[in-house]
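Batch 3, record 17
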Amino acid sequence: MGGRTVTRADLCEAVYTKVGLSRTESAELVETVLAEISDCLVRGESVKLSSFGSFLVRSKGERIGRNPKTGEEVPISPRRVMVFKPSNVLKQKINTALSGDGE
Amino acid sequence: MTKSELIAQLAGRFSQLGAKDADFAVKVILDALSDALVRGDRIEIRGFGSFALNYRPPRTGRNPKSGEKVSVPAKWVPHFKAGKELRERVDLSI
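Prediction for the assembled complex:
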């Protein structure tokens, strides 16, 4: 396993080296992409990025949880959560690359 | 929103980018994310979320139709965890 953590800065760097934009513009572009995706999800819209995956918004009903420390029952309020569903292409890429060095 | 809609948005926002460039820029970003996961790296984007790989050990599954046993090999599945800011924004807006 790689063990490194890829951050925003790495995405900006990739855009900067491959797309003909300045560093500032590259950072702006990455922010815009993230903001577009986020805003869609906030509106409750799903975001489908083919060959990567989709971000979906799910509504969860109320349920009873438990405080694992005290065993006390606590109601969990209904909420909206987002989930990422990786595409088959992405899942396949990951498993072809990592098969063999099972960790 | 689909990838092509995202690309169109981007091309509209960045006048210096043509449709081709916007398409390429989105590809560069998504490839950087995929490549990171393929290397086994994690991804952490503050305010947005993080991606990590979860291990699924090998198991014996069953063909639900025939009841036959099949061995399912170990695999890694990508997992996304929404960042605090986005998680709260998604939950609040109804």
